[in-house]
Amino acid sequence: MSVRFASRPDLARNDVGIVKVSTWDTGTPERMRRTVEAIRAAWAGRDWPHPGLLSYTVHTGEDGRTLLHYSQWSGEQAYQDFFRDGRDERNADIDAAVPGIRRLGLHSLELYRSLLPGDDAREPGCVVIVDVEFEGADPARQRDWVDTVFEALATDGSRAPGGISGHFHVSTDGTRVLNYAEWESARAHIDALAGKGFGIGSGTPQWERVRSYPGVTGGGVHRYTPALGIVPGAGA
Questions:
Q1: What is the mean predicted confidence (pLDDT) over 123-132?
Q2: 43, 102, 121, 157: which could join 25 in a potential S-S bond, CB 3.0 to 4.6 Å?
Q3: Can you give the C-alpha Rg of the chain in angstroms?
């Protein structure tokens, strides 16, 4: 089974059972670039590892050192099969090419709700990851927080023109929400932060509920550029 390279994952596909998101610290912009090249080589030189892996996308961080990995799977067992049989050999090749990469953590997530305003064919030049952490595990609270965001969006008449989509994931351990938001460019997101719209900077009572939601203990907002997308090739 071969591999092919794609520009972005299909975030709206309905056969995804679980999503894995992880970050690597490569240290410098040059090492970050070399790591992306090493990932491409490690995957291009092998068959597609498992039919349950649906896509694998790598993003380069605005900080010049962090890589975000976003992979879609049919279910947890498919990931465990890959972890047992194929992950280490690829990582060994990558580590040989760029020694000293720090792997900072892995989260297991499920897509809960998506914001797809119309038939938007724009290619994202920037992916904004909004990570929200909660005190203790509570799956109902995760989903209620996301629902509160959607209520605020429904009452917010202005939308930033550079926003393409938002995909809200809940972690399987009940402790966090991750929004994978596609934007035309980093500049479009920066401009939205400085103005109003798309849930950024809006002063409505609904957005105040989001900002003051009980049990939120932390999180962050980080911008990335899509760098490498890998999907099964013909015959996979």
A1: 94
A2: 102
A3: 18
